[in-house]
Every structure is written in C-alpha cells, then in structure tokens.
Design a protein that fits this description.
The protein has 972 residues and is of the alpha+beta class. It has 31 helices and 23 strands. The strands form four sheets. Strands 12-13-14-18-15-17-16 form a seven-stranded mixed sheet, with helices on both faces. Helix 9 (328-353) packs across helix 11, helix 19 packs parallel to helix 24 and helix 25 crosses helix 26 (865-881). Residues 79-215 form the Peptidase M16 N-terminal domain. It comes from Novosphingobium mangrovi (ex Huang et al. 2023).
Length: 972
C-alpha cells in the first residue's frame, strides 16, 4: 500500500487511492450475470497483507491463471479505462534479447488476430480513442503495460475493444513483415532519445547498479541486438512471458463491474499456455568491492564530462531489495521514512535559499526496479567549489544522523502529510478511473497493495504517536546505512575532477551543521498577523452570466470576479487571477526579466512574508502559488480547499498590492538560468524548446530564452522595476470555480481583491510593442545542437490568426491539424520509418489578433530533413487539392468529440474557456458552441481552410542539425 511517493519533495502526489463515483453514469444495456461477482475472503492482491481491502475493487482469477480486477467509476462519465499488464520488462531479457520487450510492445499494435496490418490506430480512433493519449503502451525494466481509455463506452464498443485488445496480447502476428516495419520505428525512437541526457542516464545505471543486470538493461535495447532480431527469436520471448498466468487485466470505468468481468472472461478465457511459467531472472544485489571499509563503504565513483550539462553530483547509499509483506507496520515505517526525508529536504532547501555553495540539494529513498533499495543524495553546486557544496550537504545530513529532530519539526511534516492524505478523502468522488487503474498497475509492479483514501488517512492518523524524535532518528540512520555508496559527478570540462578525488571527498569526515536546524525551529507565522490589503469593499454589481450558474461580480476598483460554486467536485476549489498585459506589455529591452520573473516572482514574497515564511504559513494547508506569463496577461493560479480559500485569496491579492522584494530568490533564479542555458544545446528538441517560440513570434526578444550574458546583466533593482510595474498595471479578473460557499467567498473577496487600490491603466496599443509573426520563406532557418551526429529536427509552420472573434475558426483548424497529423504520422513513421513521433499542432492566441500558427515538426536523422519538408508540403497541397474522405474525417472528429465531452465534465474546462470573459463577453457565447465547433464540419470546409492557410509560399521553415554539419548559421 504505497501511500505516498518516497520522494519527500512531492508528498502531495499520493498513490493508490480509491473513490466512490458521484457524477452521472452510463446506463448499460448488455446482458450480465445476475449477481455481482463475489470476491474470495482474501483476494489475490491482499494475500499476506493486513491492509484493509479496497471494497470498490473486485478481484478474480481464471482457471488459466489470468488475474483481473474491475471496479465501477464514473469519472469522467462514460469512460472505461483498461490496462493489460504483462509481468515482463527489459530485466527479463537475455543478453541476446536486449530491447525485445519494448519491440514486442510495438509489434502487438502492428498486426494481430482481429487487426489487419497497420490498422490498429484507425480502429481505436473510430471508437473515439485518441492515439498517444487514450491509446498507448509502455515498457519498463519490470513490466509492459497496454493502456486504453475508451470514451463513450457502450456494451458494443466495450465488446469490440476487449476483442481487439485480447487479439493483440494473445494472438499477435509477429511476422517478418511486421518486424521489418517496426524495427525502423524503434531505432528512430532510440535515436531521438540519445544525446547527453541519455549518456548521463546510462552512466547512472552503470555506476549505481554495477554488477547487476539493471546496469545494462535499458528497455530500448541496443542496435546490435535489435538488428539481429528474427521473427523466431522475438516469438520465443513472447511465448516465454506472454501467457495468461503472467498477465493481469485491470478495468475501471463507468460500467457494471459484473459486465466488465464478463468481457474479461469472454475474450481471455480461452487463452492457454504450454508448460510451466519461466522463473523470474535474478536481478542481483548491490555489492561493495573487496577491501572497502564496511563502516564507510564508498565504492564505485565516476566523473562524467558533458560540456552542455550543468554540474551535478549524485551519490547513492544502496541496499539489497527484498520483497516484503505489505502490512500496516510496513507502511508505518514508510511514513516515518518520509518524515525523516522531508525534514532533511526542508533543511537543505533553507540552506540553499540563504545563499551558499549549492543551488539545490535533496534526499530521496526509492526502491529501484526490484534491484536495489537506495537513498539518493542530489547536489547542484554553485560555482567551481564542488567540494564545499558536497561538504555542506553532507554536514546537514550528518546533523540529522547525530541528533533527533525536534518534535516541532516532526509535527510540521506530519501536518503536511495529514493534508496530503485528507485531500484524497475529500476528492475521492472526482478521481478519474484512469488514475485508479494506473495506481493498481503500479501496486502490482512494486508487489504491494492498494487502499481506499479513508483507510489510508485512518492508518496515518492512528500512527501519529509513533512519529517521535527517537523513531525518526532511527529511520534516518537506516536510510543512510547500506551495503555500498556510489557516486556520479557530471562536469563540463575534463580534468576538473577525478574519480579518486570524488571518492576521497565522500570518505572525508564532516562536522554536523546545526545552523539550519535552528532556523527550522523558528516561530510559526499566522495570517491573523498580516497587514490588511486595504479597506474592505462590497461588490457594486452581482449578476448572472447566463451560462450555467456562473455569476459575475464587479468591484468599484475595477476588479471583476467569476464565481461558480458546484457540489460535483467536493473538496476542490480552483482559483485563477489574470492581470496586466503579459508579454506584450514588457519592454523588449527588459526581456530577460520575464524568465527571471517566472523563476523568482513568487519566491520574492508578499507583505511581511519571505519564501521561508510562505512555506511555514502554508503548513497543514492546501494552497498553491503558480505564476505564468501569457501573450496579453499574467496569471496566478492555485488549487485549494474550501477552508483555505480566504487565505489563498489573500496571498494572491497581496502579491499585487503588497509585494515583497527579497533579492535571494532573484539571485538564485539568475544562477539557475545561467546553469540551465547550456543544456538546451544538447539535443534538437532542446534547441526547439529554447528557440522555437522566439522564431514563431518573428524573433521578438521577449520570447527568447535569455543567454547567460543577458542574465548576468540583470540586477535586483531592475527586477523590482519591471515587476512592480507589471503587478500594478491593467485590469484584474478573478475566477473561483469549485466547492465553496458563495457567501464566505464574497466576504473573503471584499477583504482582498475588493480592497485593492485602483490600478494603473493598462498600456494603450500605442505604448506596447505588438507581437510579430515570421515572414514566409522557403529557405529554412538553420540552428545547431551539440548532441549526437545522427540527430536532427525539422519544423514547418504556417501563420494563421488570433482573437476571440475567430474562436470557431481556431477550433475548426484543430480538426484540420489532426488530419494533417494523422497523415504525417503515417508517412514519416509507419511508411518511411524515419521519425518516431512526428506531429502537427495549432495555436490561436485569443487575446491577440495575430500570432497563431499551424506547425508540423519531427525529430529525425539529418539526411531525412529534406524528406520531411517534401512530405509536409505534399500533405498540405493534397489537403488543398482534395477534401478528406468521410472516414478520415470521422477518425478525427469522433476522438475530438470524446475529448471535449470528457473535459466538459470538469469545472477546470469552463474556467479555461472563460478566461478573459469579464472584459470580452463574447467568450461566454463561444462556450455554448465548443462541441459543435470541434466536431461538426465537412470535407469541403477542411479543404477551404487548407487553401486559406496552407498554400505554397505561406510557410516558414526551421531545421536543427548537428554542430559538425554547420554550413550556415542563423542565431539570435
């Protein structure tokens, strides 16, 4: 019952949580057994466990050995999520089979008993499932999982889906033709995942798991083993592991569990296997080299030189992994481990924030691929003195190993965990079935169970007396004890550090650092003691919008608020504040401050609260503080709870009216931005992440990723100047959607946003630099990366438009884009095999009158770049010359229909659609037509749109090629 991730830095992301469906469910018409399936007293998942059974799941085992679990879930309405888990991944391969588990994942989609060659994608699209999101699969070191989220599930579509999936898993074709077509796709995927990041990942595997299969068993495999594959060899791997007694079917969705069970029996009941199941291969144990001091067992260390990656040091304390019985006592130990890690991570973060030798550091315990129980320590040094950074981190850890934490520190982390466990209880009715199914898959992989949210919370709260200083100290010491310690240090220049120097630094004794512990014991902060925003003011208008039960408030200071209280999303409140002028309001000469604001604006504080105070005041609360910059607006957003809404509104309003200007977050952001910059050049995708938006917006410097030189030129004074102006300008729109009391929310608004002082008017059109669009050109802009010589990327983009008046056209363009994307995928991946995941996307800035585009892109090898441009041009011209067929159009509109229908079951969908509606009421009306805009069209309409936007001479191009191929350069 992994109740939370063991990474203490993300305690709110809970695992294995169940729910009771509350939203409308689909009426089922199929014949099903008269009685609901009966679980045994001890279902297979809970054997040897005293964890309370999650009664919403119904478990079964068939005579052929196949296990299954089904449950009813109504989120989103009409959807059924199916997972087929094969207990075999890359660690189950022999030396000559490396990459086979992943290759099989591809080949099962290629052709099978009920699917002709190359028809799987189209078949699932006709059922309304989008390829890549609703239909997918993944292969890890320990499992292969096939996933399908079937929207608008009916007895007929469910039966057809189970039929198709069962044919894929139980009777794939695995022919020479299949292998010939899938092998280039897998090799393209391998190529696209290469580069510096892949070399770093490989080095980590080799160092940390030296002597174990995991050190060399990446799921992607090797070129040598993959190119040597034959239909006979891949079928041998399939026959060994794809058998009913090694497979589990998991289904969660808006249907009767008995009916779901009947489909499992119908389509998997006849599957049989010959002979006994092969034993699981040994994954080995981490072992210390001979002669290593058992009291300080530092083993393998390696220094990896990667010029484009930031200096990064990681060491791991490794222990053998052993399967355990998933009991309450075991989970109480995990909770104590988590508290111990959270205390250390909070101390490390406090030390980093104060300025010093490292930018960031963290500890994280994890069970890795059933191969090692490891505690990882990660350090990003600041400057060249890496020894000081490592020493300072180890000193904080040494203090945690020397003396127990205070009860106050423990109570703080317990309060955080309590909220993390309480939120799923409050929100269990809105947890998607896909999440429930994935959580059960994860439980099977780590050999543990699942529990309902109420049971998780009860176990935690009943365990609180166990979380004592002495017990946390005991668990801390266990976390930092092991068989062997290994380390990897990534540096940018050769000769800076040696393997021996790294090993010696880990062997050196350190004196415990108590200074941060003292800071962690600071007095609590209370909202009651914070300064008022201003004089509270009642709204001057409160009127219905005419859409659902959404209301609009207007305050005398110009603030406008959209309120939508609902009961269908218990325990969740979404808050969004849009203000100011976004990118277009920033002077291009101040462009570097945009990125730094995204890093540091929130951390610079509000009112009397610095970053440490913000953390402390939110202890035991569910509050957020996300910040983003859009074309013509800035945005603060958070997910909170009804009881925390008033204080959440105070934080947002204080950011606008009572900003604090702590320079430490700014200095830390500068350091992070400079360190990160070089990483963009490690791959074609990195270069696109860095530069694509810059070129899409006519090389406007505001959309550029600032260089280290530009970052270095910024100052705390400049940061305050730019962002003080941005925070104070323009109208304010607040959206509050979700589970809240309207009267209490308005009272909180009166004290916060209603109390804001009058805003400085937004810059007029004459005072802003409008966003530009690139000029069409057949000559590609050429950029370069420092990665592998067989990697490249190509982009072709057609400018479109923008503005709220064109929303319907933007939605119709999404249909055209999906048509284009399907054809590009078929040509570049399925037929030519030169790109793993080419795709096409459309953007349409609603707040601007220009700047939208249709963009096609692909990662591929350099020699195929001209092929991409030729294929993309041919597809564009064919869409202009010939309307799509009715079937081709249906394969796009039906998945879009299901996407919109599912999205519209959440208030967050309406929140996004209604952004800006308080100043542009036309957006209210456009919500009413969203479904028809995305799904009702004609082949002739698509042809007309293609002619309008995809014509010859209207596009511009960009390619990213290896540095060694540099013949011409186009850079900022």
């Amino acid at each position: 019952m992994k109740t939370f991730p063991r990474a203490a830095c993300s305690l709110a992301c809970l695992l294995l949580l169940a729910q009771v469906p509350a939203l409308p469910v689909l009426a089922q018409q199929a014949e099903v057994p008269a009685t609901l399936l009966a679980d045994t007293q001890d279902p297979w998942l809970y054997r040897n466990s005293d964890i309370p059974h999650d009664k919403a799941w119904h478990f079964g085992e068939m005579s052929n050995g196949l296990r299954y679990a089904v449950r009813k879930n109504g989120v989103p309405p009409g959807q059924v999520s199916i997972r087929i888990r094969v207990d075999a991944g890359s660690l189950y391969e022999t030396d000559s089979e490396r990459g086979y588990a992943h290759l099989l994942e591809h080949m099962l989609f290629r052709q099978s008993k009920y699917l002709a060659e190359g028809t799987a994608i189209a078949a699932f699209q006709r059922l309304g499932a989008t390829f890549g999101s609703d239909t997918n699969a993944q292969t890890t070191t320990t499992e292969t999982v096939f996933k399908l989220d079937l929207p608008n599930a009916t007895p007929g579509s469910l039966d057809e889906t189970f039929k198709l999936l069962s044919g894929m898993v139980t009777a794939p074709t695995l022919s020479a033709s299949n292998l010939k077509k899938d092998l280039p796709i897998v090799l393209a995927e391998m190529r696209e995942r290469g580069g510096a990041a892949k070399r770093l990942q490989d080095a980590m595997q080799q160092v940390f798991y030296a002597g174990q299969p995991l050190s060399e068993r990446e799921p992607i495999g090797t070129v040598e083993t993959l190119t040597a594959t034959t239909p006979k060899s891949v079928r041998a791997f399939y026959s060994r592991w794809y058998r009913p007694d090694n497979v589990t079917v998991i289904v969660a969705g808006d249907a009767d569990p008995a009916m779901l069970e009947s489909y499992v029996h119908k389509w998997f009941g006849d599957w049989s296997a010959s002979g006994p199941l092969a034993p699981v291969p040994s994954f080995g144990d981490p072992v210390a080299p001979r002669g290593v001091d058992p009291k300080n067992p530092v083993g393998e260390t390696r220094v990896l030189v990667e010029p484009d990656l930031p200096p990064s040091l990681m060491y791991a304390i490794l222990r053998p992994w052993r399967q355990v019985n998933d009991t309450i006592v075991y989970n109480q130990g995990l909770m104590t481990d988590s508290i111990a890690q959270a205390i250390i991570n909070r101390r490390l973060e406090s030390k980093a924030r104060a300025g010093g030798s490292f930018l960031s550091a963290s500890v994280n315990q994890n069970d890795v691929a059933r191969s090692a129980d490891a505690t990882f320590v990660s350090v990003t040094p600041l400057g060249d003195d890496w020894k000081a950074a490592l020493h300072d981190v180890r000193a904080v850890i040494a203090d945690a190993l020397t003396r127990p934490p205070t009860q106050e520190e423990i109570d703080r982390e317990v309060a955080e965990l309590d909220v993390a466990f309480q939120v799923p209880v409050e929100q269990q009715r809105i947890l998607p079935g896909s999440k429930l199914a994935d959580d059960l898959v994860n439980a099977l992989d780590i050999r543990e169970t699942v529990a309902a949210p109420d049971d998780v919370l009860n176990i935690f709260r009943e365990s609180k007396p166990l979380f004592t200083p002495a017990k946390v100290l005991e668990h801390t010491r266990k976390l930092f004890s092991g068989t062997v310690t290994r380390a990897l240090f990534t540096v940018q220049k050769p000769g800076e550090v040696t393997d021996k120097a790294l090993q010696q630094a880990l062997l050196e004794p350190v004196r415990p650092d108590q200074s941060i512990r003292m800071a962690a014991e600071a007095a609590p902060v209370s909202f009651d003691k914070l300064p008022a925003i201003g004089t509270a003011a009642e709204p001057i208008a409160d009127q219905p919008t005419g859409l659902l039960d959404i209301e609009q408030l207007t305050f005398a200071n110009g603030v406008k608020v959209m309120l939508w209280p609902v009961t269908e999303e218990p325990g969740r409140v979404m808050v969004k504040v849009r203000f100011g002028g976004g990118y277009r309001s920033i002077d291009p000469r101040d462009a570097p401050y945009i990125a730094l604001g995204q890093y540091a604006l929130v951390g610079s504080g509000v009112a009397t609260l610095g970053q440490e105070d913000l953390d402390r005041i939110a202890t035991g609360r569910k509050m957020g503080f996300d910040f983003d910059v859009h074309d013509a607006t800035f945005e603060l957003s958070a997910e909170t709870r009804p009881q925390d809404l008033a204080d959440q509104l105070y934080l947002f309003a204080a950011k606008l009216d009572l900003p604090k200007w702590d320079k430490n977050p700014f200095l830390r952001a500068k350091a992070a931005a400079k360190i990160q910059y070089d990483t963009y050049a490690t791959s074609p995708q990195g270069v696109l992440n860095r530069d694509l938006q810059f070129y899409q917006r006519g090389q406007d410097p505001r959309f550029a990723t600032p260089t280290p030189t530009e970052i270095e030129a910024t100052t705390p004074e400049g940061f305050k100047r730019v962002w003080s102006k941005a925070l104070s300008q323009g109208p304010v729109e607040v959206q509050i959607f979700g589970d809240f009391d309207k009267v209490k929310a308005i009272a909180a608004l009166e004290k916060t946003f209603g109390a804001l002082k009058p805003r400085t008017p937004a810059p007029s059109t004459a005072d802003v630099t409008e966003v530009q669009v690139p000029r069409p050109s057949e000559k590609a802009i050429v950029l370069h990366h420092h990665g592998d010589p067989d990697q490249a990327a190509a982009v072709i983009s057609w400018p479109t438009g923008g503005g709220s008046l064109g929303i319907r056209e933007s939605r119709q363009l999404e249909i055209l884009t999906q048509l284009f994307s399907n054809r590009l995928l078929d040509a570049m991946r399925e037929k030519l095999g030169v790109s793993y995941a080419p795709y096409v996307f459309s953007t349409w800035p609603v707040d601007l009158q220009a700047g939208g585009s249709i963009t096609a892109m692909a990662q591929l090898d350099p020699k195929s770049v001209p092929v991409f441009f030729q294929v993309a041009d041919e597809i564009a011209q064919d869409l202009i010359a010939n309307p799509p067929t009715a079937d081709e159009l249906e394969r796009v509109t039906e998945p879009l229909r299901q996407q919109v229908t599912r999205a519209a079951s959440s208030t967050s969908f309406f929140m996004s659609q209604l952004e800006g509606a308080t100043s542009d009421p036309s957006r209210l009306g456009s919500v009413r037509t969203v479904l028809s805009d995305y799904t009702v069209t004609t082949p002739q309409t698509m042809q007309q749109l293609a002619a309008r936007y995809l014509g010859e001479g209207s596009s511009w191009r960009l390619e990213v090629v290896p540095e060694k191929d540099k013949t011409s350069v186009a850079t900022r």
